Amino acid sequence: MMNELHSNELPESVVSLAGAFRFRLGATSYVIPADLEPNIRALAGLVDDVEVVLFESEQYSNLPDVSVIETMRQVSDAHSLSYTIHFPLDIDLGAHDVNERHRSVIQCLRIIALTQPLHPFAYVLHLPPQPRLADSNTADGIWNWQRRCIESVNIVLTESGILARDICVENLSYPFEDIYPVVTACDVSVCLDIGHVLLNRYSLEQYLTRYLERARVIHLHGIENGTDHCSLAHLPEALMTKLMRSLNASTIERVLTMEVFGTDHFVSSMNFMKGFTKWVKSL
Q1: How far apart are CA 279 and CA 273, in angstroms?
Q2: If we measure between CA atoms, which residue out of 7, 14, 55, 1 comes closest to residue 33?
Q3: Which one, 96, 143, 153, 234, has least CB within 10 Å?
């Protein structure tokens, strides 16, 4: 495992890859050990998009206030930087408990209202499964979970007024086919997390064939010793060749987020992606 740098600034040697690809290359809002605003400033001009990773609980919240949102908007205007907003992981729109679903819906609506001045490229949403339910692995249990997810997502769409395709449901550890009926029923988009596909040993070929066309956001991260969200340098070249060919054969505007955290993982990932710039342009 690489030793993380502890500076609040990125090395001057990091080369800009903004505009280098036919997709928008993104990074997370945690590449230096600092709050959201310093990370945004550090990444401006280096990448095309920042995935704003949000947390909100009774103990801790990193939701930006209005002044930070305004700064982010100004940075966006100055550097043609877009944002993808990752909803907090504790949101559970398919929860069995109605109060938990209601809390999650309200949380989504509050975040959408807060971030609307940024005109986000997309909102990334986790729909966690319900392992604690006795019927969770039965067809009836899955159907009931899907029904609750559909109802909650539709409420978020109706109350917020955002476009359905602006919400991207991310594949997690369970088979994505379990939740894909929710995606199609609500006409939302997909966040295709390649790292999750690899970590859970699903077929990348099948996921690309089935879900890439509907994916507006792609998460990419390497796996080292069974741990994901590591440098992209750990990804096999054959996988990257396949992915790049798929992306360059499409006219859909997408964000590809290097979903890594920490300076060393980010710098290594940027160096790795730099090696594909000439290759991509030659296609």
Answers
A1: 10
A2: 7
A3: 143
Domain presence at residue 11: no
Q: Which residue has the tokens 């692995």?
A: 137
Domain that holds residue 211: 24-281
- What tokens were used for 101? 């679903």
Convert the pLDDT of each residue in 111-148 to its tens digit. 999 999 999 999 999 999 875 444 555 666 889 999 99
Q: Is 261 in contact with 231 (CB distance < 8 Å)? A: no
CATH number assigned to the domain comprising residue 99: 3.20.20.150
Q: Is 131 exposed, middle or buried (0-12, 13-18, 19+ CB in 10 A)?
A: exposed
> Letter for the amino acid at 230?
C
Whole-model pTM? Answer: 0.92
Distance of CA 152 to the CA centre of its chain: 20
1 within domain boundaries: no
Q: Is residue 49 part of a domain?
A: yes
